[in-house]
Amino acid sequence: MILNEDKALKVAEFLLQIKAIKLQPNNPFTWASGINSPIYCDNRVTLSYPQIRTYIRQGYAECVLDYFGKPDVIAGVATGGIAQGALVAQELGLPFIYIRSEAKAHGMGNQIEGYYEEGQKVVVIEDLISTGGSSLKAIEALRQAKLDVKGLIAIFTYGFDLAHKNFADAECPYVTLTDYETMLEKALSNNLISESELTSLQNWRSNPKEWLK
Description:
It is a single chain. The protein starts with a helix and ends in a 7-residue tail after the last helix. Helices cover 41% and strands 21% of the residues. The chain is of the alpha/beta class. Strands 5, 6, 7, 8, 9, 10 and 11 form a 7-stranded mixed β-sheet that branches. Strands 1-4 form a two-stranded antiparallel ribbon. It has a single domain, classed as Rossmann fold (3-Layer(aba) Sandwich), CATH 3.40.50.2020. The longest helix has 19 residues. Helix 1 packs across helix 6, helix 2 crosses helix 3 and helix 6 packs antiparallel against helix 7. It has 7 helices and 11 strands.
């Protein structure tokens, strides 16, 4: 689910403009998982552009209120969701916490950093959804701390079926500011990719592991 079509196209345009999203179907990237990919997404780049950072912050805040209502606290997922989450919390005048990938091995041994209370309603901020694994690990940590997770919002998702399944299994709704199909539509209309490259990019999303074969 995306915020709305017009705003999703605008966010996609921004991501392509500043090369937060890079498309190279003829010279693919290799992800850490070993998957060959025609796309690389690094939404942290948006933080370096004040106008775009503001647009995304406001989009996040709108999503929070429209889809989940005003929560008691905003939580960012380390690392990409920390800065974005803090900006959203500031926009909404709410407390902010963040979730480490795992508990610290020293000090207080915290996995969740910041002040919170059991039973508080929380909306989780992430920058990118791939399979949803790291996001759902953070959500599980919040639930174990007895926080009421209302849902998650990210800037971008590849739209993999596995991610849909993982979030559905975890009974956690999510919304994104834009998505893979919207981004491809904008890339094609702005002449950043050809029709044949569009087909290749669509085929990759359908079956990433078999794409180059």
